[in-house]
Design brief:
It is found in: Cell membrane. Its main location: membrane. Heme c 2 binds at residues 206, 209-210. Heme c 3 binds at residues 326, 329-330. The chain folds into 3 domains: 25-32 and 42-177; 191-296, Cytochrome Bc1 Complex, Chain D, domain 2 (Orthogonal Bundle); 313-429, Cytochrome Bc1 Complex, Chain D, domain 2 (Orthogonal Bundle), CATH 1.10.760.10. Helix content is 42%, strand content 5%. It is built from 18 helices and 8 strands. The chain has helices at 2-31, 45-58, 61-65, 104-113, 127-130, 135-145, 170-177, 191-201, 207-210, 250-259, 270-277, 284-296, 313-325, 327-330, 348-351, 356-364, 389-399, 412-424, and strands at residues 78-81, 84-87, 115-116, 119-120, 227-229, 232-234, 366-367, 379-380. It has a two-stranded antiparallel sheet with strand order 1-2. A two-stranded antiparallel sheet has the order 3-4. Strands 5-6 form a two-stranded antiparallel sheet. β5 and β6 (232-234) form a beta hairpin. The longest helix has 30 residues, at 2-31. It is globular and about 65 Å long. The N and C termini lie far apart (62 Å).
Amino acid sequence: MKKLTKLAAVVVGCGIVGAAGFFGFAEYGQHRSFPAIAADTSAAAEVQVRRGQYVAATADCAACHTVPGHAPFAGGYVLNTPFGVIKASNITQDPGTGIGGWTLAQFDKAVRHGIGSHGYLYPAMPYTAYAKMTDQDVADLWAYMKTVTPVKQKVVENELPFPYNQRVLLAGWNLLFFKDQPLTPLPGVTAIVNRGDYLVNGPGHCAACHTAKNFLGGDVAQGFQGGTLQGWHAPDLTPNAHVGLGQWTTGDIVTYLKTGTSRQAVASGPMQEAVENSTQHLTDPDLQAIAAYLQHLPASPVQAKGAIAATDPQMVTGKVVVESQCEACHRSDGTGVRNMIPAFAGSAQVNATDPASLLHVVLMGAEGPMTSGNPTGAGMPRFDWKMPDEDIAAALTYIRNSWGNSAPGVTSDEVHRARTQLAAEPWLNR
C-alpha cells in the first residue's frame, strides 16, 4: 500500500512538473521573437502595394476577413467549426479595433507563425500554409494592408467551449501539426511546378479544404485527396481519373479557376467564393503553374467499382425523377451545358465517395460564380421544398451510376441528415 501511495505521488508529481513545463513552454512560445524579414523594399511604394494586393488575392484574405456587403477586411465573418464559432478579426488600419498599431514584425508573427496580439491564433487562420510564404510576399502584403481604409469595428469574441477557448493549448496543437518553416523547392521538377507548389501549399492554402482532417483538425497524411467541411465536400485534386482531375487538361483547370466554370464543373459553395475573391484575379502563368503542380501529384488510390444495376429499384425510381426534374438543364446524355451547367457524365464530384456537396446543392440550390470571364453565372434551384428524401436519394443514386459513373448509392437517411443539418445551421447555406 505504501509503495502504491509513493508511486501515485511520483505520478502526480511528474504530471504537475510536466504540466508546468508545457505551460511554461507555451507561454514562452507566445512571446518569442522571429528573424527579421529580409525583403527588397526599394521599389516605389505603389509598386510594392500593387504586388501586395496580388498577394492578398492569392491568399484569399477577403474570404474570411470581409463580410459580404460590408467594409473590406473589417472582420466579423463567422466560421462555424467542429470546435465552436470563430469570428474573423478586423485587419484594417484602425489602431483600436484593427491592426493599425502593428509593425511588420507583428504582422509577420501572426501571418506566418500563428501568434497574434492575444496569443496563439486558431488554425482556422491558415498560418500553417502561410508559413511557407516568402519574406518578400509578406512584406508586400503588409505594404498593401497599410493602405486599407481604417474601419472602427470591434469583432465579438469567439464562441468556443472549454477547453477549446484556452489558446495556450494551441501550443500543443502546433507541436503536432504545424511545421513553422519555409517551403523547400521540389527537386527534379520544372520551375513552373515549383511555382505551383508555392501557390497551392503557401498563400493558396488549398489543403485547408481539399485535405481531410483528423478529430483534432490536423491534416491527414493523404494530401489533396478530398475533404468534407461545413457541409461541403472539397473534391480530390490529384490526377485520379475517377474522382480527381485525371480527365482535366491544363486548360480545363485554368479556365475553371479563372471563370468558375469548365466543361466538367461549376464552382459552388466555398469554391465559388474562392474563385470570385481569389483565383479569377491570378495571372494565367500562375494558374498554369497551379495546374502543373496538381498534375504532378501522385493519383489517389480510389478506383471505380461496378455501377449499381439499372434494374435496381432505387435506380428505376431515380431514372423517373431525373427525367422529370433534371434533364431539362443537365440533358438526357448527362453532358450539361458547357461553361454553364455541369455535366453529370464523368464528373469527379458526382463520383466522389462523399455525396455531401451533391446533397447540399440539390436541397438548397446554388449559384455559379460571377467573374469577369463569366459575368452571368447560372443558378441551380433548390428542391428541399419539392422532393422527399426518398426521391432525392434515388435521383442521386441514379446520377452517380449512369453515363459511365459508378459511386456508392445515396440513402434516404443521408438525405434526411443533410436536410436536418442545413435547416438547423443556415450559415452552411451561403
